[in-house]
Amino acid sequence: MADAEHPTAADAAVVVDNFETRARRFFDLVNDGNIQQLRVLIDALDADELNILLRWMVDPVERDYIRSRSALWSAVFRQHTDIVDLLLEKGADPNEPMIFGENDQRTNMTPLYSAVLHANLELCIVLIERGANVDLGSDFGITPLMLACDRSQTEIVTFLVENGANLDLGSDSAITPLMIACDRSQTEIVAFAIGQRTYSSSSAAASSPVPFHHRKQAKDTHQQPAQPLTDHGTGNFFLSAYATSEQRIASDSEWKKTPIGQTGLYNMGNTCFMNSALQPLFHTPGFSQLFQEKSAQRFVNGNNSFGTNGVISGSFSALIDLIWSGKFNALRPGIFLEFFARRVNTEMADRQQHDAQEFQLYLLDALHEDTNRVNKRQSFEQNYDDTDLGASASDFNERSKLFSSSPVNDLFNLTNISVVQCSTCNTKSVRFEVVNQLSLELPTNTDCLTLKDCLEAHFSSASLEDKWDCPKCKSKQPATRSTKIWEIPKVLIVHLKRFSLIDGHYVKNDVEVTFDVAELDLAPFLHEKSTHHNAALSLYGITDHSGRLNSGHYTSSVINLISTDREWLSFDDESCIPCGTAPSPTSKRAFLLYYKQNDQQQQQQM
Q1: 3-state SS string over 498-514?
Q2: What is the CATH class of 238-370?
């Protein structure tokens, strides 16, 4: 048998074959928190057997389990403090990280990092007293102290610093704990940190600025000094938010090999509105690829004051990467919702029922601002006529890019052209309007209608209720307004407005709508002078709503993004059912419809 410090897989298999019942019992007792029976069992094991169970990362009962963690890590994860202390006393390694995957790809998510993640000061104390490295945390150089600062855990921050945590130790993206505390406006933590640094400076002549066992890490930090946040063109907190979200979501979710694209999302109270809005985005051509971690880092602009400094895009990217990993049956995106509340919209993160379309608008806007290429916006006024619409449209596009430009808007933005015409002299005024969703009214005086009916009503000419101030007549005159499509986006989201406010209450319109699946032809709604030739789109996703706004339920159906045969999937929170063919094209529940351009060359570019 190999030496006791480094058992081999063969050693583990031999030992387990001889004490499988006790091994199974050992891990069951650790997970259940039964310390009394665990002590009895440990006393019955010989030294080699105990060493295997303490140090070998693969549970000998479930060797093929896709997520592997030591008994100590399991005890920390379940916050069994007394069992953690017992295992450390018996020789468990306090710095052994959790392993993800089947090839021992370490994530460096240490037990101490997990204790901070659970805001458990008592566990932190036990681990530090038993020899845990206070600066060893997770991927991307995220330390336990950084995590504690990010989560406003003042007591844990104080404890970690007093026990040698390095305030100047930067992450791989050169972000330090003090930077995080400043960004979160955590006055108490900032004051404490500055006080600690002042004390360290005054005593520098007598001692090293960090404890002896941390000197190597401190030296590495000085070789790559932390830079101001504004110097990071890829986004200030993208990597920090990504790493924290990836670890938290993975820890909170159950690992199970799943066909790629079929991972669901747990309902965390009444969050089906969020789940049903996210799944179609995950399967949106071009969008999911854009926000994979390696791609998104290139687009995030940390200098845009209207964005979230990469926080929401980092968390969203982690969610996308885990969704497409094929390692989870369902994910619990609690940390994503926390970041959404902190940086985007507090009201929609109370885990109550909300409007899926409203949530999606907030999210897309936040992701747009995070990837907005413009730092200093240049606003402009439109003053176009119908003399040369092509030139006017080009001028509008160029000026718009100086105000707002992102890969998100490049994908979703629909450009309409609105023409107001004086009924007296026929003078025309032209405006271009950009939206990232097309919202269509649903009439209440019919039992059924088609999507084409809604489009015709939306793009029909209408007389203005108020007279128009005609620049040629130099007086207010009757006028008409007509709106047409000027440019069709690569991805078009159609919102069927089923909810309306009547007498202070939201009322749902359950009218049956028949929509196009194989091909939605927008050619009849294009402006006659538009140069956009491809007007054919195909359906790839639906968000449905059943019941009332405050007591209803959202679900979604999508075409699997990686499917070659247009396989449809039906999502109901954590449940995913492959349904083969497309859903019924006639529905009282359809709320959001997702279309993509049919042009093959366009799809390849996406």
Answers
A1: CEEEECCEEEECCCEEE
A2: alpha beta
Distances (CA, A) of 322 to 68, 150, 246, 350: 17, 22, 7, 24
Q: What phi, psi does 355 have (nearest 5°)?
A: -80, 120
Exposure string (b/e) for 207-237, b if CB count within 10 Å is 16 or more?
eebbeeebeebbeebeeeebeebeebeebbb
pLDDT at 206: 32
**Token representation of residue 381:** 């006024």
Identical fold, 9-231 and 404-605: no
Minimal CA–CA distance to 168: which of 202, 133, 200, 204? 200
For the chain, the domains span: 9-231, 238-370, 404-605
Contact 196, 167 (CB under 8 A): yes
Q: Enumerate residues 6+ apart whose C-beta is below 8 A from 475.
A: 469
Q: What is the 3-state secondary structure (H, E, C) of 367-433?
A: HHHHCCCCCCCCCCCCCECCCCHHHHHHHHHHHHHCCCCCHHHHHHCEEEEEEEEECCCCCEEEEEE
- Phi/psi at 115 (nearest 5 deg)? -65, -40
Torsion over CA: 452, 453, 454, 457 (sign): positive
pLDDT at 464: 92
For 572-592, the pLDDT digits (tens) are 999 999 987 888 898 999 999
Tell me the CATH number of domain 404-605, given options 3.40.50.12780, 3.60.10.10, 3.90.70.10, 3.40.50.150. 3.90.70.10
CA distance 393 to 418: 12
Determine what percent of the chain falls in helix, strand and coil, rounding each to the nearest 5: 40, 20, 40
Residue numbers in the chain where pLDDT is lower than 70: 1-19, 56-69, 99-108, 139-140, 170-175, 178-179, 181-236, 599-606
Q: How far apart are CA 239 and CA 321, in angstroms?
A: 13
Q: Using CA of residue 204, residue 210, residue 213, residue 219, what is the dihedral sign? A: negative
| Strand ranges inside 234-320, DSSP E | 264-265
Q: Return d(Cα 72, Cα 60) in angstroms, integer.
A: 15
Q: How many CA atoms lie within 13 A of 42 on its CB side?
A: 21
Residue whose pair of structure tokens reads 């600066």 in the numeric block: 135
Q: Does an H or E element contain 597, and which?
A: strand 590-597
Which neighbouring-strand residues pair with 569?
A: 558, 578
- 383 Cβ neighbours under 8 A, 6+ residues apart: none
Q: Show the tokens assigned to 127.
A: 């681990």
Beta strands, E only, 86-176: 99-100, 105-106
pLDDT of 192: 63
Looking at residue 492, its amino acid is L
Residue 545, SS3? strand
214 Cβ neighbours under 8 A, 6+ residues apart: 134, 135, 164, 166
Indicate the pTM of the whole model: 0.65
Closest by alpha carbon to 310, among 239, 242, 238, 249? 238
For 401, residues 6+ apart whose C-beta sits below 8 A from its C-beta are 374
| CATH code linked to domain 9-231 | 1.25.40.20
Please give the Cα distance from 447 to 451 (Å, whole number): 14
